[in-house]
């Protein structure tokens, strides 16, 4: 995939560097590339395109033209179509018979534990058992070992209107976490308990049953799809994504567990890779923002086993937030500015963003304490090193977040007597009386001569 400004992902950086710099002999390599990108970016799919070209230059044998998935439109279809061409090529290359359809798609065996040792049961940890307990927390903190941060502040930034925008401050004291203005903080969220329990009811499972999924193939690199043993409740709360639209291949796996002809016909149609099938999937799932709960509610005879669903659903992903503070001004806290996501779907349901709606009610007080697993990710988005360089920042809505960090940094520099170049911010909001974020702070920077700000309304009178 392409990230940043035409860059490879963090976990591909080393590979990218190696094929760029070294004159490798890849004459024995058969390869093909599918790139993930978004066509609204200037450097569309540049990583996939580069790898595709470079492996050929190094002597590789390209077995299939480059596939490109566009996250702005039809990414899922793009990969399905590309895969349809891929498998026949692979089978030909290895002399395999690709016509055998009777393959067991299940990768894991289910075992429900009658009398589990609860001290060995995962409760939502990303990898290491009990790693969220204060006494077991150990730096360095990174994606597989997040820091359990105490939330110090969670206050509403909007002064009116029906939306919420949170200003959150996370404590990073004694964590050895360092950050620069412009970096991102990644938060591990939880799914809504109501959705989790509804899903258990729909699929007739007791949420607190302890189970384990074990790879059928003893050579599999992943022994289980997420940390096990755990409970159905924990798996659905912390480990799998239950709120995105399920992919076509997931729905296809529901077919053998669908009994009525009516439901079967619907599912069969929308899991076909024909134009008609794709259109049906788009209409039923994507346009109506149907989640797995919605599909099971609307297809009452479709009841896949919960453990199979857990195997099929993607892992719940972290949510990134631009850090809206500077460590020069706040060395022991990381600030986040997050708008709460909620929207109505054409079927009349209200879909709520996982992370933002999980964070919203977590308002700390003397007797209420909240902890959030997080880590900091470095970014390329930086202030010019010299403070005298003038800057123009354009950030409507929560787009102001990284610039708040930049402003704090320049303010610290100015107070230390450094020359600070002209600092201009263009901010946009719906109505200044409602959602002019950090208005007082910005006005104080204007008053001190640090900032020139231009704030505009899109829905003002
Ligand atoms: C590098 C980076 C920095 C970011 N910084 C910030 C930040 O500073 N502040 C901030 O608030 N967010 C920021 N985000 C976005 C943030 O990571 C989350 O995506 C956002 O908070 C929503 O998360 P959620 O879990 O609440 O929603 P999710 O459960 O992830 O739901 C989001 C999904 O809902 C769907 N959706 C959203 N709106 C609608 C709609 N109107 N109609 C239909 N479907 C819709 C889309 O499919 C979308 O992908 C950043 C993202 C990245 C990648
Ligand atoms: C911060 C950020 C930067 C991105 N930069 C690019 C880019 O330069 N070019 C591009 O084609 N896509 C870019 N994308 C889009 C991603 O490549 C696209 O969403 C892709 O589907 C991500 O795949 P993944 O979710 O499997 O990592 C960017 C996405 C993000 C969040």
TrEMBL record:
<dbReference type="InterPro" id="IPR017927">
    <property type="entry name" value="FAD-bd_FR_type"/>
</dbReference>
<dbReference type="InterPro" id="IPR017938">
    <property type="entry name" value="Riboflavin_synthase-like_b-brl"/>
</dbReference>
<keyword id="KW-0288">FMN</keyword>
<dbReference type="InterPro" id="IPR039261">
    <property type="entry name" value="FNR_nucleotide-bd"/>
</dbReference>
<feature type="domain" description="FAD-binding FR-type">
    <location>
        <begin position="144"/>
        <end position="384"/>
    </location>
</feature>
<dbReference type="Pfam" id="PF00258">
    <property type="entry name" value="Flavodoxin_1"/>
</dbReference>
<protein>
    <recommendedName>
        <fullName>NADPH--hemoprotein reductase</fullName>
        <ecNumber>1.6.2.4</ecNumber>
    </recommendedName>
</protein>
<dbReference type="Pfam" id="PF00667">
    <property type="entry name" value="FAD_binding_1"/>
</dbReference>
<dbReference type="InterPro" id="IPR008254">
    <property type="entry name" value="Flavodoxin/NO_synth"/>
</dbReference>
<dbReference type="InterPro" id="IPR029039">
    <property type="entry name" value="Flavoprotein-like_sf"/>
</dbReference>
<dbReference type="InterPro" id="IPR003097">
    <property type="entry name" value="CysJ-like_FAD-binding"/>
</dbReference>
<dbReference type="Pfam" id="PF00175">
    <property type="entry name" value="NAD_binding_1"/>
</dbReference>
<dbReference type="InterPro" id="IPR023173">
    <property type="entry name" value="NADPH_Cyt_P450_Rdtase_alpha"/>
</dbReference>
<keyword id="KW-0285">Flavoprotein</keyword>
<dbReference type="InterPro" id="IPR001433">
    <property type="entry name" value="OxRdtase_FAD/NAD-bd"/>
</dbReference>
<keyword id="KW-0560">Oxidoreductase</keyword>
<dbReference type="GO" id="GO:0005829">
    <property type="term" value="C:cytosol"/>
</dbReference>
<keyword id="KW-0521">NADP</keyword>
<dbReference type="GO" id="GO:0050660">
    <property type="term" value="F:flavin adenine dinucleotide binding"/>
</dbReference>
<keyword id="KW-0274">FAD</keyword>
<dbReference type="GO" id="GO:0003958">
    <property type="term" value="F:NADPH-hemoprotein reductase activity"/>
</dbReference>
<dbReference type="GO" id="GO:0009725">
    <property type="term" value="P:response to hormone"/>
</dbReference>
<dbReference type="InterPro" id="IPR001709">
    <property type="entry name" value="Flavoprot_Pyr_Nucl_cyt_Rdtase"/>
</dbReference>
<feature type="domain" description="Flavodoxin-like">
    <location>
        <begin position="1"/>
        <end position="87"/>
    </location>
</feature>
<dbReference type="InterPro" id="IPR001094">
    <property type="entry name" value="Flavdoxin-like"/>
</dbReference>
<dbReference type="GO" id="GO:0010181">
    <property type="term" value="F:FMN binding"/>
</dbReference>
